[in-house]
Amino acid sequence: RKPRPRLNRSHLLLGFITLCLLVWCLKAIHHATQPKYQGKTAEEWFALVDPHAQQNAALAISHADPAIQAFQHLGPSAARFLWRELHVTDTALKKLFIHKAAEWSEGRWLIETSETRNFKALVALGKMGPAADCLIPELLIRAQSTNHVDCYRGLSLIGHIGTRPEVAVPLFLSNVTSTNPMAFGQSMAGLEQYGPPASNALPALEQALTLRTGHDRLLVAYAMVGIGDRSKLT
User: Which of 161, 207, 226, 227 is least enclosed by beta carbons within 10 angstroms?
Assistant: First the structure.
């Protein structure tokens, strides 16, 4: 009867090794089938964006950054990946593990939190510009959300992507009379970013100049100048 426990342990070990090999094979196949730029997938380029590169500073990433160029080249596949990263959320257990890992290693082993990944994805999507056009339908929904964070992100990204003015401009104009300062401000910024393609917004903005006061009025003026109309500025 003694050999049986050994046999069971051998079967368990063999099963564990087989499972590991299966997982590795699936990951290898998944990696091989993913679109790549210069041999790296969007996920690998995303990992190279370092939010800790500059201490006490916001994430520094420019349009010339190799990762942004990679995302722009990959287009929709990269945009979809970044969209998923924008919405990841850590479980309570993972948050505890990340905190303890940083504590035990005295800050040498830093694992990115979901908040960091969300921020990196938001910045990267904004820098992608028209290459992220495939996300416009989802962003239109987010931009009309009652959740202020979702609304802000949606409006901000639509402005940075800068495509489909036929749907973006009416959306921005719907916030001309908004009492939500984030929605109003981001909508004015979006119209300014679109420039001349948003010229059909000028009559509504001209009217808004008489309705808004203070800083809000200044934002309307910036939008008009960005579109190309300085005639009403005195």
Answer: 207
